[in-house]
Amino acid sequence: MTDLPQVSPLLDRLESGLRQHLQSRGIDQPVLVGIRTGGVWIARELYRRLGLPDEPGELDISFYRDDFSRIGLNPRVTPSHLPFETEDQDIVLVDDVIMSGRTIRAAMNELFDYGRPSSITLVTLLDLGARELPVQPDVTGHRLELPPHQRVKLTGPEPLAIELREVAQ
Length: 169
Prior knowledge:
Layout: H1 7-25, E1 31-35, H2 38-50, E2 57-59, H3 68-71, E3 90-98, H4 102-114, E4 119-127, E5 139-143, E6 150-155, E7 161-166
Parallel strand pairs: 1-2, 1-3, 3-4, 4-5
Antiparallel strand pairs: 6-7
Helix pairs in contact: 1-2
């Protein structure tokens, strides 16, 4: 059985790590963009904790997935919402879990369709390893090793919690 971490200490670690990362890069006015759904919940919490002026944006990457033709359209697709320009912005891209890197690639493709950011910082609550693409988070709450038949799911938004799920093999 895998011991799952609690979300609150991971959010503390994300906040601290993100503050340090931004300071080391000289970024003082980042904008947050969460990937639906869990990334949006985390981005909202980081926005609250960091006291940033711009509300976080939301990406629905459904149309940008590289497996779109195989798995079809998610029935809950909603438009992405970016309440700010992306051109020349320092964007903090937030997701709940990174595994293969494909979701992050899709999110970056969508962001660049809106404009060319100055930089993108990747923040994830959990890092499951298992990359298929060379995409690494700049700040992560926790690295978690899971057997191939298990996945994690962030539930929320109130309260945020991590659940373990079994997947068919």
